[in-house]
Structure formats: C-alpha cells, structure tokens
Amino acid sequence: MKRIYKAGVITLFTLLPLGMSCTSDEDVYGIPGEDSGGEIRFATGADLTKAKDITATNLTTFDVYAYTSLTDSLNPYMDNVVVTKSSNNLWTYSPVKYWPANETLDFYAFSPADWVGDNNPLRPVPYDAYPMSGGMRDIVYAVCMDLKGETELPNPQVILNFRHALSKVTLKFSSTNTDIKVVVTNVSLVNVKTKGNFSFPPSSTSAVLSAETVGKWSDQNTPYMYPLLMSQSASERVTLDSTPTVFDAEGMGFGGTLYVMPQPLAWQNNGTGTEDAYIAVMCSIYDAKSDTKLWPNENTPKDEIVESSTFGDGIMKFPLLSTKFSEWQPGCHYIYNLVINTNDEMGGIQFGTPSVDSFIDVVANYE
After folding, report:
1. Domains in the chain: how many in total?
2. What is the mean pLDDT of the chain?
3. What is the CA radius of gyration of the chain?
C-alpha cells in the first residue's frame, strides 16, 4: 500500500445525477387518442447530461409493463408495450390501451428493451454486461404507482421519471511533475463484477431519492477485467501531462468512461486477492531531459514488473474504493483523478533518516 500510494495521487469526485427528472411543461408531449380522453398517454422528462448518457433528448423508445390489482406478472394489463417518440415529439404506441374502470395502474418502464428481455419487472431482472455491450450502454428505468385515468383533465398523461440503473465510472490521468515523463501503455479496471440481479423499486421514481424509490442490485458475481486502454504499438501509448486525460475508446480499449453494475468494492490484499477491485496502470517513467528510464528498474519488486511487456513496463495498482465510499451506487458518477508524479523505485537520489555519532567522552581529571 505504501509503495502504491507514493506512485501517484488519486482524487475522487462522486456526482449524484438524479437520472432523468421531471422538467417543465415544454418538455411534456402527449399521445393523440380517442375523443373520449380515456386512452393511456405517456410523457417523459430528463435533465440533459453527456453524449452517451440516456437523456430526454436522445431517448426515443422505451418499453412498458402495467398492472392492476387484478393482474399479475403472468397477466399484465400492458405487456411489454413499446412506446416510441415520433418526428413531431409525440409518444405513440399501438394498439392504444384505455384506463380500466375502478382500478388503478402501476407502470414499470425501461430502456433499452433488451435489458429486461423475456423477464418482467415484478421479479428480479438478471443482468449480464456482455450481451448489453459491455460497459458502453446506459440503462434507465421508471416506476409510476397507483395511477388512474383523470379524463376530466385537458391532457392526462403518465409522466415517467427515469433513473439510471447503473453506475458511471470515469478515469482521468495526469502528471504535473515536469522533471519526468510518464508513458502509459495499458489501463484496466480489475475484478469488476459483470452479472447480477436488478429489482425495480416499490415506489414511484418521481419521488425524492430514497431506499423506496431507487432500484436495488443483488447477487453481483462474475468478476472481469475491463480494458480502458490497450496499446498495440508505441504510437498508441499515451504520455501524460498536467492536463487530465480521459482515454478515447480506440482499438481494444473501452475508453476512460464505463457504465458498470453497482457493487461493493473490496481491497483487502493490496491487489493480490481475487476479490480486490482496482485500477491497473501499465506504464514506464523516464527522465524528461535525458529520456533515461527511471521506473521500473533493478530496485522494482518482481510483482510490479510486467514480464511480457514490449516496453519493459511496470504496473501500478490503485484501489477503487476510497475513504468516501466502499461501493458503487446506481445513478452515481465516480470520477477518479490519478496524478502520477513519482515512484519509490524510480532511481532518483533520495535521502534517508540520518544518524549522528555521539560525542566520545574524554575526561581529564586534575587534582
């Protein structure tokens, strides 16, 4: 642990996007239906986020299940109905369903459609990252409970507030020590679990964030190593500078941002245990002026040297947990800033604790 933390400084920022929250009236769109006004209409709302995140702007379709007190998982009132945004921003589906008399409806919606698949939201939904394109796709869900058709209103709608089911992880790398050059070859997230079960919350997701309004994950398993950067040649290696770098998704790498399953984060054996979850950085450190390699060198422990590396790289390990959190939560964005400025075995001149000889007593006695 001492060697690892001296290799670089990690700062972490945890953001809590509420996923897709209700917006102003101008963001609400209706579905034209029968003149009676008894048809079920849908609308969505969202705060804008970055490109790969699902937002109100780029959400174009979602699937819906609906249940009354008389229906169950085998006989829903709406059975995996696909709702689609038209070119004029109207949310449509077919055939149109009408509000049942003297019954309320519970709605469960989600996107993308292949997440739930043949399952249904009343039972835990299995999740496997790899049929879901690894860590490259966002997932959202929404729940609206105990709704009835308010046909006396001018444009009654089911307004869905979507939340993100996964966690988002971003890695940023930099080096602010101008005396050295840090060249990164590979970066991976190690022992990140990729399979588990998701349970939709028992209360509406339009309510304030709480244990009752956020979905739950359980039985996380099947650890995997996510490659974020995998250099195949010297030209693909990345030299760090003072500007934080988020690696692009190139070659076999996934880039510096992933959508991952929420899960506990273990760090019990300093990166040697099968459960330890960490960031593995394969790199070399050089003197900036002479280009002499400083690390790894003859003083570097064997477990920090990558024997198969074409460039003679070493490996640094940084735990994914921190003093601020011990697990990833759904709908949270975890930003890891890694600042690599030195390493214990770089070979530079260092000074240890000095020692000083004691005075030798020389006694002269005069009588």
Report:
1. 2
2. 82
3. 28
